[in-house]
Design a protein that fits this description.
CATH class: Alpha Beta
CATH topology: Spore Coat Polysaccharide Biosynthesis Protein SpsA, Chain A
Strand content: 25-35%
Number of domains: 1
Radius of gyration: 18 Å
Structural class: alpha/beta
CATH architecture: Alpha-Beta Complex
Order of helices and strands: EHEHEHEEHEEEEEEHHEEH
Number of strands: 13
Low-confidence stretches: 12-17
Distance between the termini: 32 Å
């Protein structure tokens, strides 16, 4: 069975100040993505698809994709503002593509079987890939999975972040995911910066966009994206979030999502100030493995 890793790498890095996907943070100049692809390869994934902006192709293929050619199949998909379904056009002033759900949808033409989805700039650890690979080998249409992490272990000390807060039932299946776009660690605890503010405990299982899907997901995403554009397509800042789309599928009974957990730490690059912590954490991992 071919297991595919879909890597979302089209983000523009506005808060980070550059292409964080290509920032060498490992002890020998590795980027975070090197660790994820290596962990996926060891877990049994045989193909990787990079979802990028078309203008990044030459640089990305030369600096990233070429590292994995010969080890696994490598393909590219492009997330752009357009084309959009129904002949729609993006509103004037819109600069960014349409979010993580749209990014996954961009890979439809090159995904052939069960697949995982990750962010390019997050470190997930090997155990989550092993859990997800085992799940995907026996899954059927409508049976998905997500690897979750404790909220308090996914925050930045340098600013607010977006996270999908998960709620699971007693059998370990997701009930819903609430997308919170401004979660910050403060002196008074973990706060969602909304009006009014919402306080969180920190132990909540959290989506870091580490998913396992079957190909039938694309039909659902296509319909939900069309509905999203109908309602919010004129909003220059609106995003079609993957967790929100999956949560809607759970609510309608179109999918079940098994909540898996990882024994490894998560860390990632959101702000420039996050970089020293990531460099230190990767150096520690190298010392353990070495």
């Amino acid at each position: 069975m071919e297991l595919t890793l879909v890597v979302l790498a089209a983000g523009m890095g506005s808060r980070y100040g550059g292409l964080k996907q290509l920032d060498p943070v490992g002890p020998s100049g590795e980027i975070i993505l090197d660790y994820s692809v290596n962990d996926a390869l060891k877990a049994g994934f045989t193909k990787v698809i990079f979802v990028i902006r078309r203008g990044m192709l030459e640089l990305f293929r030369e600096t990233v994709g070429s590292r994995y050619e010969g080890l696994m199949g490598v393909e590219y998909s492009f997330q752009e503002l357009e084309p959009l379904p129904g002949g729609r056009v993006s509103p004037p002033g819109r600069e960014k593509p349409w979010g993580t759900g749209h990014a996954v949808l961009a890979a439809r033409s090159v995904v052939r079987g069960p697949f995982a989805v990750i962010n390019a700039d997050d470190y997930y650890g090997p155990s989550g890939f092993r859990e997800l690979a085992a799940f995907l080998k026996s899954a059927t249409s409508g049976q998905y999975a997500m690897v979750g992490y404790r909220l308090d272990r996914t925050l930045s000390d340098h600013g607010a972040v977006s996270r999908g807060i998960c709620r699971a039932d007693s059998d370990g299946y997701l009930v819903d995911i609430t997308e919170r776009t401004a979660i910050a660690r403060t002196a008074g605890g973990i706060i969602v910066e909304e009006n009014p503010p919402v306080r969180l405990e920190g132990s909540e299982p959290t989506s870091m966009n580490f998913w396992g899907f079957m190909p039938d997901l694309f039909d659902h995403l296509e319909r939900l994206f069309d509905e999203f554009l109908e309602e919010r397509g004129s909003d220059t800042k609106a995003e079609f979030y993957l967790p929100a789309a999956v949560s809607e599928m759970i609510g309608t009974g179109e999918a079940t999502v098994r909540l898996l957990s990882s024994s490894d730490p998560w860390f990632g690059l959101t702000y420039p100030e996050d970089r020293p912590m990531v460099v230190e954490a990767l150096a520690a991992i190298a010392d353990i493995e070495g």
